[in-house]
Amino acid sequence: MRTAATPSSKTSWGRRILIAIPYAWLLVLFLAPFALVAGISLSTVRLGMPPFEPLTAWDGSILNLRLNFENFLYVLTDDTYLLAYLTSLKIAAISTAAMLFIAYPLAYGIASCSPSSRSLLVFLVIVPFWSSMLIRVYSWMSILRNDGLLNALLLKIGLIGEPLRILNTETAIYIGIVYTYLPFMVLPIYSNLSSADRTLIEAARDLGCARISAFWRVTFPLSLPGVLAGCALVFIPVVGEFVIPDLLGGADTQMIGRAIWLEFFNNRDWPMAAAVTIVLLALLVVPIVYFQSRQAHTRT
Amino acid sequence: MQSYISIENLAKSYGVVTAVNNINLGIEKGEFFSLLGPSGCGKSTLLRMIAGFETPTTGAIKLEGADVTDVPAHKRPTNMMFQSYALFPHLTVGRNIAFGLQQDGLDKGEIKKRIGEVAEKLQLTALLDRKPAQLSGGQRQRVALARALVKRPKVLLLDEPLGALDKNLRTETQLELVRLQRELGLTFIIVTHDQHEAMTVSTRIAIMKQGQVLQVGTPSEVYETPQSRYVAKFLGETNVFAGGRADRSGGELQIESDEAGGPVRAAFTERVPLDRPFWVSVRPERVELATSGGGLEGTVEQLSYTGVERHYRVRLKSGATLDARRVNLGAESDLAVGDRVFASWSPQASRLLAE
Fold first, then answer.
1. Does A154 score more than 60 pLDDT?
2. How many helices (H) does chain B have, and how many strands (E)?
3. Higher-confidence residue: B189 or B331?
4. In the CATH hierarchy, which top-level class contains the domain B237-353?
């Protein structure tokens, strides 16, 4: 009897190497930098290069380990940071919801097209990636300015009497985020809907559903994995987004990505910046873990 | 008289392709009716038009005299059992079965009662909390059947319902379907490409080819008196010879056939005009082989043993082949490959075919 449990030693070495590659990747590019950041977050700021005290020091024959939790206490009790975290989560939540409302009908529409026009439409969704994100955000600046394209258009058709102030407001941040991240919401939903089994819709209609109730009772619940993947793909990076709020937002909207940047480059307080980062990571790990377990659950 | 379901001049084209070409059919209440044909013959399209998934290009479908041609699928009193079963993967077996009843707005008690009944009838009671992915093929097939039957449709449509089952389970399920259909007194229309299945379950069979119905009849009618070479060959195996000059004496015909290499006897029928090309068909199990005597002379070319029967392929003197079968009654075959044999059959075993 052939069994897969006892492969020859040669193939098992090949398998081990193959499995080791992604682990090595994660170790070098994720876990090691994470350990560095975690270490810095527990050290004390100082003048010089690097701008923090080492965690360990030799005192004669004794190795001293000094962990400074002050930064964490400060981050977790200071109103500015708390507000920045909340603002980031709020903006991420609202823009994720807005993207879902735009992306779902868009993905549904593309998935209902003939296969030949589908690939063209998917291509159009991806096309913006061909130019740099920075350039696209800068163009939004010129569109949203007081004397920008949008205001010029609205003034010309007489919808408004004087220019709207959109740039450097929270509205501009939402516009920028929704515009930039929309494809990440569209693609997983589209991929789910386009592979859906159409006979299930026929079965629902056969059992008495009009098209709309067939959608809500069959298509939508079955597309939830795609929806969840899309939400995770946009929510997580948006929470830590720095470029868009910095370029399009105003001084009164403090997002956590910007706070980290300020601590790091303006205040040169690496331990504080690292502590803010670690707390942000902890905030994000919760929804990721939830999403993963949810995925694992739906598969069984 | 108006049939329970009547299909009138029904046609369906997709662009230049004609899937169903001017079909007229009457199906009576309580029938187990088969649409039988090879893939691409339009049988599934016809079924889907009855279900309401396809709109006919021309023609009408009437149910109990009422025209339902333009009634959308979700308002028709028909339910379909899909070839792939199309069970909702996100719902448990119980919720799959409840789906159509909830849509009809039945109250919870009634839904529960009906699910209990149908689950018991189809031995699904223990499986109601499982998801479709946790079921075997046979169990899924029963859930699909339960989901359609629980709606108490006037007509149950079955699209190749047993195609995914292995052979033993399929035979078992065919008998089960017949039992259910009799018990419930419902009208079943089944689409299949398996002639054996159609013969086993049906009260009547429509044999289809290229979008048209060639012949409709009970299993024995279509098997015993096929009206064309196509039907004769599609339903089981047969030997067909082109007929030549025919002499009639009383109720019997003596037909010259170059293809058979000798005269063939057949019973006279008004149905087939003998002044136009015609063919004679005889089923292998009606052919008798003997080492001496009269009949068509030939040599045994192949012999195969299937357990139930012995199959002989005889090369006739004319060059044509003739298949014969003998039921295995325990004796060894007295014929071997290379033996000279004479094939004959009774005049009643010959069928005259006009096309």
1. yes
2. 8, 21
3. B189
4. mainly beta
Q: Is the pLDDT of residue B100 over 80?
A: yes
A197/B86 Cβ within 8 A: yes
Check CB contact under 8 Å for A210 and B90: no
Across the A:B interface, residue pairs with CB atoms under 8 Å apart total 60
Residue type present at position B301: E
- Which residues, at least 6 apart from B35, have a Cβ–Cβ distance to it below 8 Å? B43, B46, B47, B189, B190, B191, B192, B206, B208
Give yes or no for A213 touching B (CB within 8 A): yes
Average pLDDT along chain A:
88
Q: ipTM for the complex?
A: 0.82
Q: What is the enclosing helix (H) or strand (E) of A26?
A: helix A9-26
Q: Which amino acid is at B107?
A: D
Can you give the pLDDT at residue A9? Answer: 57
A10-24, A191-205, B147-161, B181-195: least confidently modelled range = A10-24
pLDDT the model gives residue A3: 46
Q: Indicate the pLDDT class of residue A4, thresholds 50, 70 and 90.
A: very low
Domain boundaries for CATH 3.40.50.300 within chain B: 5-232
Residue A71 CB partners (closer than 8 Å, separation 6+): A41, A42, A271, A272, A274, A275
Inter-residue contact B212 to B40 (CB < 8 Å): no
- Chain B residues whose CB is inside 8 A of the A217 CB are 99, 103
* B80:A222 CB<8 A: no
CATH 2.40.50.100 in chain B: give the residue spans: 237-353
Straight-line distance from the first to the last Cα atom of chain A, in angstroms, rounded to the nearest whole number: 29
Distance from CA of A19 to the nearest CA of B (A): 29
Strand arrangement of the beta sheet that strand B279-282 belongs to:
B239-242, B279-282, B351-353
Provide, as residue numbers in chain B, all residues whose Cβ is less than 8 Å from the Cβ of A221.
90
Query: In this structure, are strands B288-290 and B279-282 parallel, antiparallel, or unpaired?
Result: unpaired
Please choose, from the candidates A266, A238, A242, A248, the residue with its C-alpha nearest in 3D space to the C-alpha of residue A172.
A248
Please give the single-letter amino acid code of residue B159.
Answer: D
Q: Provide the pLDDT confidence category of residue A8 given band limits of 50, 70 and 90.
A: low
**Rounded distance between C-alpha atoms, residue B259 and residue B241, angstroms:** 6
Domain residue ranges in chain A: 78-268
Residue B230, pLDDT above cutoff 60: yes
Each residue of A55-66: pLDDT tens digit? 888 888 888 888
The fourth-level CATH superfamily of domain B5-232 is: P-loop containing nucleotide triphosphate hydrolases (3.40.50.300)
- A247 interfacial to chain B (CB closer than 8 Å): no
- Shortest distance between the Cα of B47 and any Cα of chain A, in A, equals 13
The CATH number assigned to the domain with range A78-268 reads 1.10.3720.10
